[in-house]
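To close the chapter, one final illustration. This time we ask the reader to focus less on the individual chains and more on the assembly as a whole: which components sit near each other, and how the overall shape emerges from the parts.
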Amino acid sequence: MEREKWAAWFWLGAGILICIGSLNLSVGSFRSPGPGLLPFICGAILGGLSLIVYLQARWSRPSKELERPFWKNKNRVLKVFLTFIALLAYAIGLEYLGFLINTTILIAFLLGAIEPQRWYVVIFGSLLTSSAAYTIFELLLNLPMPKGFLEF
Amino acid sequence: MSGDLIYGFSIILTLSNLFYCFMGVVIGTLVGVLPGLGPVAAMSLLFPVTLHLPPVSAIIMLAGIYYGAMYGGSTTSILVNIPGEAASVITCIDGYQMARQGKAGVALGISAFGSFIGGTLTVIALQMIAPPLARIALAFGFPEYFALMCCGLVILTFMVRGSMIKALMMAVVGIFLGSVGTDLIMGTPRFTFGIKIFMDGMGIVPVIMGLFGISEVLINIEEEVSRDVFKAKISNLLPTLKDWGESIGAILRGTLIGFFFGILPGAGTVVSGFTSYAVEKKISKHPKKFGTGMIQAVAGPETANNAAVGGAFIPLLSLGIPPSPPMALLLGCFLSYGVQVGPLLLKQHGDVFWGVVSSMYLGNLMLLILNLPLIGLWVKILRVPYGILFPLILLFCLIGAYSLNNTSAEVILMVVFGGIGYWMKKIDYEAAPLIMAMVLSPMMENSFRQSLLLSHGSFGIFFTRPLACAFMVTAISLLVLPNLPWFKARKWTGLEAKAR
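The assembled structure is written out below.
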């Protein structure tokens, strides 16, 4: 139930922010709708519905479905978090490091740290995957991949 | 009609289009077989590759992935007891039991034949219904379109299995996200925060890949996917006359159910499978045997999920309204290729419509011929540990997102939505209404504002025109209906209880 309430607060906040942003864009009137009208309506409905969700969570009896633990496997939460950070780092570093280096590092990290494999699987797997992906997408399908500071 | 179909076959029967159709169904089957990589993620991944192709070839391939995945999903359900694809969840129950009794071949065979029959019959219905529906839709004005889209979104939120209020919230968030970018009427930038890629609107493909692809991998990492692949030799793939006798009724009923639910927004392949199972159990003389390996319980749902794909093309191609996330993605692809789907599609791009319809006949046939002999290969792929597979899935998503506009900003957007999708799954908020609303948002806003301009600000325009009024009344009724106490108790709880 607590997670329902927190989520409702989050959406309520989002709704209020959308409404404020829309007012800055000029809402106009129904006769002459402005660019902010639709986002404003969305923000208002989102806020209203999140209040209903909050009140439902506040007054309804706790059900088994909603009482299940937030983390199904607490021991692996760190792995999820690390994977997400690794993906974000990959996305940010893609244009600086280039596709080949960046991809080799990411795959090596995922194979080595998230679902640990033997050392030779990590090394050869990451090298093979990044070069195979480069060959398929850059050379065969002509999808230009970022070169990075080393220009390859 | 037959002349149009012959025209369609003249388009598909070229070497290049046959190749793309073949690639689509093979990739589709592969993603269907692999748990954790759905058709939406696969279609998103291949979308940038298809940008260099003629629109008809691109859509043939992407559509092939979608219906191919429906075939592939059953293999994993029957052999591993894990749904390869969400639509095959219900097949696990009796399919896996059949495999344990040494009837894996029969289960796989009847799934493939049922999928073929369901898929083919609904393509016939698609070619018969879509053109007249498109002619009717030509009479639609802005108010009718707005009311129809509202109705579609409300039906979608009504059909979701969780809370309707949460689904409505996600639809509203989707409409808001769809409004990000330059305002089409006044040219004002909205919620772009100076980010260049937002000026043309937030990309639907990275959002879909994040919400469906990345989040699914994150969930699987947390829950530690383990697979115990069925090891016995798989034989007798061709069903006997007795098998046919027991399952033909289920296949025909599954076709009807799948077709109907395919058209409805939000119901799609998953609900059609559940409904087919529930119907088969209800009418069976031995309902208590369901769950112990009944062939009808495999044939019906597997037929229904394939039939739903054909049905889903009707609103997309004739009205321009996607009833499910894969169709929303296809709509995005159509727009990227410069093809406007909807009532004018047949007039302006008849080649695309008839080419896609004809490709579905051939694609279903290819799947039937390919699937059964390739079972051994799919089983081998299933034995690849998830620890090796998930980096590849993530890499495909990353490359797909980058290739959209050759910018890492799209990759960042996808990863961020991956995190949001993971959190949404944890707190039981569904992504489907968000995606559908996001795709429909620009059309919806344009229709809404134009309608208000036409009516000088009066909302009466949505209730004084008969068609618009009918759509609005349906939408309002569906909003009110779930709050009636007797209905609350009956909705999905009733359906799922029957399925159990």
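Chain A touches chain B through 67 residues (CB under 8 Å). Chain A is about 70% helix and 0% strand. With these observations in hand, you are ready for the problems at the end of the chapter.
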